[in-house]
Specification:
alpha+beta, four-stranded mixed beta sheet, 435 residues, globular, 13% strand
């Protein structure tokens, strides 16, 4: 991204913060002080590049129990209406995706990395604040699963890979807020809202055929009051620059989550380019006797963790599906063959209609599962069904978009080939993100 584009990106981020601060939403949500703090630092320091060096975390004293966000209790049937806050988030992020992410997506895919200025700008948009409780510098006072799902969907309209990269730190903050101890929260959560925000990611996928996330090859062993991790993780989003990892490993026959700091002895990171998700800088992590304190073990509901991760990827697929629909409709209407637009042919018209129908079915199942989770109700069945449907239909959406463009769909001149490659990740990426 050139200097002119970077200046536009910086101004765009500050414009969103200013717009939000000028509304009455911060007062209604009782987050006026936090919003003004974000605006102050954004205007004073601009959009800083994210440091790639390992961060030093100072042990923090914590008093009392860990902080947990309240569940949102809503009566009645499934409600599809959005709050004023959610609508404003959607408007701002849709604009960000359209004006910043989509123009940068092709070059980021070619370079196999996310531009540092986009990573910094996205941090200043404040998405991370929905995952960090107020007492640690964030804005969260209650569960915001649906709002975060909507944010992922809107970001996905710009680019799947860039959006996944931008959301990795939010995912780790969600995990620490939901499952972390008081000490873990006090030590790590404030770093997410510092002037140079913490870059963190989940490391849960393993390089094994037909990987099953509940049958892990990475093993944790209790030794001398510590845990020692041995094994490998693959396709770790932002793994090459992350400073903190949430790692899944088998402990006494049970899948368990651990916090591992970047730079820990025995931890090695190597680039692992993949078919898609190129801008997300996928990496392979090797744990060769990595020793971590016993205090770094998370007391997580692992099945819930898996379900929330599946829903995060479903939300991203929804955004890309919407981008596909917005792209192919004008194309088939403008593309003329044998004297008429190709959209006049039933085979083409029916394929476009199927994309719209399948996208809507994916959206309803994903929204329903997230709404149940946010309200503290059982949602395992709904999340599982949403993941199965979205994994199948997302690949079909990608295939159909390439087919509709014919030979053009096979070239890098149009974004559908990139969307096709990225969407296929839904079937293999288990918990690379988490709501």
């Amino acid at each position: 991204m050139n200097t002119k584009s970077l200046g536009k990106a910086q101004g765009f981020g500050l414009a969103i913060l200013t717009q939000f601060a000028a509304s009455d939403l911060p007062d209604r949500l009782k987050i006026r002080e936090a919003v003004e703090k974000m605006l102050y630092h954004g205007s004073k320091n601009g959009f800083k590049l994210v440091a790639t060096a390992s961060r030093t975390f100072k042990p923090a004293k914590a008093s009392g129990a860990a902080t947990r966000l309240d569940k949102q209790k809503k009566a009645g049937v499934f409600d599809l209406s959005l709050s004023d806050e959610q609508q404003q988030v959607r408007d701002n992020l849709s604009r960000f995706a359209r004006e910043v992410l989509r123009p940068a997506a092709h070059d980021a895919d070619e370079a196999h990395q996310i531009p540092a200025e986009i990573l910094a700008q996205a941090a200043d948009l404040g998405i991370i604040y929905y995952a960090v409780p107020e007492q640690f510098g964030g804005m969260a006072t209650e569960e915001s699963l649906v709002t975060q799902m909507l944010a992922l969907e809107d970001l996905g309209k710009g680019d799947f890979s860039l959006s996944a990269a931008l959301f990795t730190s939010v995912s780790v903050a969600n995990v620490l807020t939901r499952y972390g101890t008081a000490e873990q929260q006090a030590k790590y959560l404030p770093a997410f809202v510092e002037e140079t925000p913490l870059v963190a990611t989940l490391a849960c996928v393993e390089p094994t055929p037909i990987f099953n996330p509940v049958e892990l090859k990475t093993v944790a062993t209790s030794t001398g009051g510590d845990y020692v991790l041995t094994g490998e993780k693959s396709l770790v989003l932002m793994g090459q620059t992350a400073e903190l990892f949430i790692v899944s490993a088998e402990l006494d026959g049970e899948p368990t989550l651990f916090v591992v700091e970047g730079g820990t002895a025995g931890l090695s990171v190597a680039a692992e380019p993949a078919m898609g998700l190129k801008a997300a800088q996928t990496a392979r992590l090797t744990f060769d006797g990595v020793r971590i304190p016993a205090a770094n073990k998370l007391d997580a509901d692992y099945r819930e963790f898996l379900d929330l991760g599946r829903l995060a990827f479903c939300a991203l697929a929804l955004g890309v599906g919407e981008a596909i629909l917005d792209y192919v409709v004008p194309y088939v209407n403008d593309r003329v063959a044998f004297g008429e637009p190709i959209s006049h042919r039933q085979s083409v018209a029916f394929m476009v209609a199927d994309i719209a129908i399948e996208l809507e079915s994916m959206r309803m199942m994903t929204w329903r599962a997230c709404a149940l989770a946010e309200n503290g109700q059982p949602f395992h069945r709904e999340a599982h069904l949403a993941q199965i449907l979205c994994a199948e239909k997302a690949m079909k959406l990608g295939t159909d978009s390439v087919q509709l463009l014919g030979g053009h769909g096979f070239t890098k001149e149009h974004p559908v080939e990139r969307w096709y490659r990225d969407l296929r990740s839904l079937a293999v990426m288990h918990n690379a993100l988490s709501l």
